[in-house]
Amino acid sequence: MSSDRRAQSSDVLRPKNVGAPIKRTEDPRLLTGNGEYTADRKPDRPLHLAFLRSGQPHARIARINAEAARLAPGVMAVLTAEDIADDFKPVIPFSRIPNYYATPIMPLASKKVRYVGEPVVAVVATSRYLAEDALELIEVGYDPLGAIARAEMAVADDAPLLHEEAGSNILIAREFKKGDVAADLKAAAVRVSGRFEMTRKAPLAMEPRSYTAEYESRRDAVTLYTSSNIPGIVRDAISESLSLPGHRLRVVAPDVGGSFGSKGSLYPEELFICIAARKLRRSIKWTADRLEDVSSSSQAFAEIVDAEMGFDANGVATSLQADVLGDVGAFSIYPWTCGLEPVQVVSFLPGPYKIGSYRGAVRGVATCKPPTGPYRGVGRPISTFVAERLMDLGAKALGIDPLEIRRRNLVRPDEFPYRIASGIIWDKTGFIECLNAAAETAGYEQLRKEQAEARKQGRLFGIGIASYAELTGIGSRIAVAPGMPINTGSETAKITIDSTGAITAAFGVASHGQGLETTLAQIVADDLGTRFEDVRVIQGDSDEVPMSTGTYASRSAVLGGGAAKHASKILQEKIKRVASHLLEANADDIEVAEGKAIVLGTDRAVSFRQIAKAVYSDMKTLPVEAREELTATYTYDPINGTTAAATHIAAVEIDPATCFVKILKFVVAEDCGRIINPMIVDGQVHGGVAQGIGAALFEELIYDDDGQLLSASLVDYVIPSAPEVPLMDVIHVESESAVAGGFRGMGEGGTIGAPAAIANAIADALSPLDIDVSILPMTPERIFKLMEQAKLNQEEKADE
Amino acid sequence: MKPAKFDYVLPATLDAAIEALVASNGEGKVLAGGQSLLPLLNFRMARPAVLVDLNGIKGLSYIEERGDRIAIGALTRHRDLEHSPLVASRLPVMSAAMRHVAHLAIRNRGTIGGSLSHADPAAELPMLSAFYDARISVQGPAGRRTIAAEEFFVDALTNCLEPSEIVVEIEFPVLDHDGWAFEEVARRFGDFALASIAVSVRRAQSGLKDARIAVMGVADTPLRLREAEQELVAMELNDRTPDRFSEIVVSKVSPNDDLHASAAYRRHLLAQLSRRALKTALAATERAP
After folding, report:
1. Is pLDDT above 70 for A3?
2. ipTM of the complex as predicted
3. Which chain B residues contact residue A209 at CB under 8 A?
4. Where do the structural domains in chain A lie, given as residue ranges?
5. Are B170 and B116 in contact (CB under 8 A)?
6. CATH code, domain carrying B236
7. Residue-level pLDDT at A252
8. Which of A132, A292, A657 sits opposite B272 (nearest CB)?
C-alpha cells in the first residue's frame, strides 16, 4: 500500500538500507531477556533506596522523627532535606519568557509538601525490603495547608498559595495574537464554540523509572545508569547541581523500556541518588514500583479549553480564539518548565489550517498533583481535539461534509512555507495528500453510505476525521520549550573505524524503544558504504559525545540521522584518501561500498580492515601524513526543523446497551518524509494510535478533592489491551523534507490524531441524539450519562 | 512495594496446614494461587505473620462427578475448570463463565478455593457458587463443616470462615434446566464485572416451573435473587416478559457508585443483560426436547 505513493525521484536514488524493512537489531536481546535495563546493573554490594512519600496534598512539615528508622536492621542512612542541604544546589527550570515562575527542583520536600506522592524522607538500606520496613518507623508531623485539587480551585480568590514565593498559583501565562479576532468572529457567517477538556493521563511506560548510581571511591566519581531519554541533560544538570565535572559524572541510559515522555525530565529521585551515593560513598539502586511510577512520574494533558471558531458562508475558517487553563501540578519540570504542555496547546491550535485571525491565551496553574510534563504529542493531542471538534461543529452548522470542510481549510501544496496564525511555519508537507489518501483508503463515501444504512436501523454509527501537523526535528532557531536556555537544536555523531576495522557509531540520542540502533545503523551503512550488520551503534552515554540532549520531540531521526549522514561522508572521504594510497588510484575514482574501497570499473579493492591496518598498525605502508585517524565527528543542526502531518479516520459504533465504543475501522495517512525503516514507522503509528485510543476511551488519573489519586493501580487505571486496539491501515505519503536525508520526525503523531478522530466519530455516531463530545476519555459511563441526558431533553421537548 | 516480613510454611498435609494456622494465633494467611493475596502483601494491606502455602498438599485439585453433584477440590485452577469436559457438560453455566475470569496467566495460577475465600463481589466463582447453591466444605481445628454459598459471603472481601479454617472442596449440584444464559459486561475482557447475570429456567406446560437468577457487580456480595425467581416463574410468557423481567431484576439491587461505574450505569447494564439473558434462556427452552 505504501510503495505506490513514494516519490518517484527517491525510488531511483533510494540506497539499499534506508527504506528497507530491516528487523530491529535490538529485538533478539530484548525479547529473549538479554537486554540490560538500569535495574539489571550489578554494582559491587549496592545499597537500596526507598522513599517515604507525602500522604498529604499540601502541608507544612512540622517535624520528622526518624530515630527508630535509623536504628532499624540494615539501614545505612535516613536522609531528609535538612541532612542533604549542603550537598547540592537546587536545579532551576529556567525560562526567559515573562509571566513565568520557575519552581526549583529539590530532591526531597523541604519545609512543605505539595502533592501526595512527593518524596519526603529517603532510607538507604542493604535491601529494598529492609528500606521499606524502616519507612514504617518514620513519623512525619504535618500541618495541613489546604488542598488545591483542581485548576479552577487554584485560581479562586481565596485559594491558598502552593508556592508563596511565586505570589500566585498561576505559574505561567501567555497569549498569542494575530489579527482582529473579535471583528472576524462578529463578521463570521457561523460561530461554533465549546468547553473542551482532556483529563489527566499517565504516560505509563512498561519499565518504571529506575536509577543506579555506581560510585567510584578512587576518584569520587559517579556513573548514573538511568531509565532516561535525556541522559545528556541529566548529566549537565546534576554536574551543575553537585559541582561535579563531566569526567567524574557519567550518565548512561542503557536499554530503556519506554518513556512516552515520562522519562524525559530530571527527577528528584535521580538527583537524590547521586547525592546519596557520594555522601555514603557507595553504589545505590532504586526502581520505582508501579504505584510510585503512576503517582510521581510526570503526567499528561489536564487542560480545559474554552474555544470558538468563526467560518464564512463557504466554510472557510476565518477566526479562532481559545483560553486554556492547564492544571500543571505542583512543580515545573526540568528543563522543559511547566509551560511545555499548556503553551503548546495554544501554539499548535490553528493546526494545519489557514485561519486568518487568532487569539490563544494560556494559564498554567499549580495544583496539588505531580507535575505534568512531556507526553507523546505534547499539547497537540488536545489542540487537535479542540480544533477538529470545532471543524466538525462548523461543518454541521453549515451543512458541509466534514471531509470537504477540511479540504477548504488545509494549507494547499502551493502555499508552503506557510506561517499559521500562532506563528509556526509549516514547510512543504502533504497535508491535502494525507487527507485524500486517508479518505480513499477508508472508503469514505462507502462509509457514509454504510452509516446512512445503519442509521435507518437505529444503530449509532459514526465517522471521524482528524488532520494535524507537528514540528519535528527542531533545530536551534526554535526552542523546544518556550524560552528555555538549553540548546535542543543539534546532535552529534562520532563514527570510528578501529584498528580491527570494526565500525562504531556513537550518538547522544537515546532510544527508549524507537529502534534507533537499527535505523541509525541503516543510515551509516548507506552513507559510509558498508554492510548494515557491521555497524555498531552506541547511544545514550554521556561519555561518548561532548554534549547531547537526548531523544524527545520527534528529533532523533532528523538530528541523529542528519549527524550520521554528515559524519559518514567525512569518514568516507578519509577512507578514500587512504585507499588512494593503497590502490595507487585517484581518490575520485574510488567507490566505497560493502565495507570495501574499490577502484571504479576494476576489481582492485581494499577492505576496511586492510585500511585500518595500514593506518593504525603498519608503520611502512602509508606515509606518516597519510595516517589520518579513521574517525569523524559531526554535529548537525537542522536550524528550523521540519513539519510532519497526518490525517486519521475512524469509524465507530456505539452499543446503546453497554455504551461501549467499538472501533470498526482506523486509517492513518501520514507524511514522515523519507522512510528509514517502514516496519519501524508502522510500529510507531500502531503504538501511537493505541495510546491515542487510551486517551480517547480509557485512561484517566482520577484525583479526589483532597488531592488523593484514586486510580493508582492498573486495576483502576484502565489502559487499552490488545482486543481494544483494532487492526489499522497505515498509508505513507512520503514527501521528502528539506533536512539532511529528507526525513521527518514521526514518533508522536499516532497519539496526536487518534483522540480527535475517535472523538469526532463518537460525536457523529451520537448526533441523531443531539449529543456533543467535549471531554476525553469518553468512557462508557460518560456516554451513558450523555445518552440519559439526551433522553430527558427529548422528553422535555416532547412535553412542550 | 515489598511485603512486610513473614514466615513461610509449606505443609504436606491439610492437618499440618491447619496446625500452622492455629499456631499463628490468627496471624496466618493461606496461600493458594496467590493472585489476589500477593498484591495485598506487596501493598502491605495484608501483613500475615505466617503464610501457609497449600500448594504442597496433594489431592486438593480435582473435578469429580458424584451422582447429581460435581465436587471440585479447592486447589483446582481456573484453567482446569475452563477446559474440563465434565464442567462443560454438567455445569454449562460455569463453563461459559470461566472464560470471563481474568486473564490467561491469572487463570493458570488462580484457584477456586482462593477465589471463594477472597470473596470479591465482582468475581465469577463466588457468583456461580450462589447461583448453583454450591456447598462449600471447610476444614478447621474442630473438623469439617459445610456452608451454603449464600451464607459464605458476608460482605465485600469478607467470608464467614473462622480463623484457621480452610476451604477444601466445593460441591455444585447439576441443575435440571432447559435453558440458561450467562452475561457479563466488563470494561475490558477479563476485568472485574461491571454487571453480570446468570439465569436458568425449566419450562412447564405453560410458563416456567423453576428459575434461578444470580447477579454480581451490583452489591457487596454476589446475590441470588430468589424473589425475582418466584416472580419470573409466576409470569406469563409473552413478548413483554424480558422487559418486565429486567425491571424486576433491577428493582432487587441497589448498587453503589464507584470509580468504575455509577449506580445508575450499573443498573442500566444489569437491565440490558437481564433482558438479553432471559431471551437467550427462553430461546434455548424452545429447542429443548
Report:
1. no
2. 0.95
3. none
4. 38-146+208-256+263-296, 300-476+639-799, 490-636
5. yes
6. 3.30.390.50
7. 97
8. A657
Q: What confidence tens digit (pLDDT) does each residue in A158-202 have?
A: 999 999 999 999 999 999 999 999 999 999 999 999 999 999 999
Q: Three-class SS of residue A174?
A: strand
A713 neighbourhood in chain B, CB within 8 Å = 39
pLDDT bucket at B287, cuts 50 / 70 / 90: confident
**Cβ contact (<8 Å) for A784 and B187?**
no
Q: Give B39 to chain A, closest Cα distance, Å.
A: 10
| CB neighbour list of residue A699: distance below 8 Å, 6 or more residues apart | A201, A202, A204, A717, A718, A719, A777
Domain boundaries A300-476+639-799, corresponding CATH code: 3.30.365.10
* A490-636 CATH, one of 3.30.365.10, 3.40.190.10, 3.40.710.10, 3.30.300.30: 3.30.365.10
What residues of chain B lie within 8 A of the CB of A294, using their CB?
none
Given this model, what pLDDT does residue A797 score?
87
Query: Do B82 and B21 belong together in one domain?
Result: no
Pairwise CB contact (< 8 Å): A723 & B189: yes
Residues of A in contact with B100 (CB under 8 A): none
Confidence at residue A15, expressed as pLDDT on a 0 to 100 scale: 63
Q: Can you give the CATH number for the domain in which B130 is found?
A: 3.30.465.10
Which of B4, B259, B272 has its CB closest to that of A716? Answer: B259
Residue B289 pLDDT level (bands cut at 50, 70, 90): low
Residues of B in Cβ contact (< 8 Å) with A129: 2-3, 5
The domain boundary, picked from B113, B147, B173, lies at: B173
Neighbours of A372 (CB within 10 A): 30
Note the CATH number of domain A38-146+208-256+263-296.
3.90.1170.50
Chain A to chain B, count of Cβ pairs less than 8 Å apart?
58
- B41 plus B69 within the same structural domain: no
- Residue of chain B whose Cα is closest to the Cα of A661: B187
- Count up the domains in chain B and report the number: 3
Chain B residues within 8 A of A787 when measuring between CB atoms: none
pLDDT score at A482: 74
Are A133 and B191 inside 8 Å of each other by CB?
no
Asked whether residue B72 falls in the same domain as residue B160, the answer is: yes
Tens of pLDDT, residue by residue over A487-524, are 899 999 999 999 999 999 999 999 999 999 999 999 99
Q: Which pLDDT tens digit goes with each residue over A669-693? A: 999 999 999 999 999 999 999 999 9
Q: Domain end: B146, B173, B200, which one?
A: B173
User: Chain B closest CA to A296's CA: distance in Å?
Assistant: 14
CA closest to B269 among chain A residues: A658
Calculate mean pLDDT across residues A203-223.
Answer: 97
**pLDDT tens, residue by residue, B237-277:** 999 999 999 999 999 999 999 999 999 999 999 999 999 99
| Same fold for the pair A38-146+208-256+263-296 and A300-476+639-799 | no
Residue B273 sits in which domain range?
179-287
SS (H, E, C) chain B: CCCCCCEEECCCCHHHHHHHHHHCCCCEEEECCCCCHHHHHHCCCCCCCEEEEHHHCCCCCCEEEECCEEEEECCCEHHHHHHCHHHHHHCHHHHHHHCCCCCHHHHHHCEHHHHHHHCCCCCHHHHHHHHCCCEEEEEECCEEEEEEHHHHEEECCEECCCCCCEEEEEEEECCCCCEEEEEEEECCCCCCEEEEEEEEEEECCCCEEEEEEEEECCCCCCEECHHHHHHHHHCCCCCCHHHHHHHHHHHCCCCCCCCCCCHHHHHHHHHHHHHHHHHHHHHHHHHCC
In whole angstroms, what is the distance from residue A40 CA to residue A109 CA?
A: 29
Q: What is the CATH number of the domain that holds B48?
A: 3.30.43.10
Q: Which residue of B has its CA nearest to A702?
A: B259
Q: What does the pLDDT read at residue B271?
A: 98
Instruction: Search chain A and give the residue with CA nearest B196.
Output: A658
pLDDT digits (tens, 9 = 90+) for A326-356: 999 999 999 999 999 999 999 999 999 999 9
Query: Which residues of chain B are within 8 Å of residue A658 when distances are taken between CB atoms?
Result: 185, 269, 272
Q: Is the pLDDT of residue A400 over 80?
A: yes
Could you tell me if residue B132 is inside a domain?
yes
